[in-house]
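Why does residue order matter? Because the sequence determines the fold. Keep that principle in mind as you read this record.
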Amino acid sequence: MHVLTVLDHPNPTSFSAAVAQRFMEGAQAAGHTVELTDLHAEGFNPLWSMEDIERDAQARDPADVVAEQARIERADALCLVFPLFWWGMPSMMKGWVDRVWTWGWAYDQLDDPNRSLLRPRTGVLLVPAGARSDEMDAAGYKAALETVWMNGTFGYFGLSPRRLEVLNGSSGSDARRQALLDRSYDAGFTLLPPDPAV
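Structure:
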């Protein structure tokens, strides 16, 4: 498969960047080709603007959006890497989702509101988080993220199978961080093919 990894972190030496690298190394070890979109390094503009709104009326996407859509179209699997930020996505990743996965390209919500317009792709979210897993489970945060991201957003985008890996304790000990990097490698190495039944 061809695997696209999209990274949102302004620091190229961040733990999130290391997670993206290890995931891609795992995918390559399994025989896949990889491609990285580093949103900060590439200067992606996450701001939803009048140009995006006018696109809806004129059915013409801005050039930067078209470039990102082309990356997605050539990928068989997609991995998003970003730190958990106020129990959601940081602004760069959220803006990338808002601007790139457009109505009429990714979904239409008219004939079948649950059906993507895109061919199926495998989807993985690797989300470093400082919080402990038991704390997140007890407060219902993990279930909320599953509902919003897995059942909502990425359900519309034809990502199947899709997998959410919250990398809890990413600000912990070196041993803990190494274990999370090993999990990231394994996520790349064990990628499943897209489900054609979707």
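The chain has a mean pLDDT of 90.
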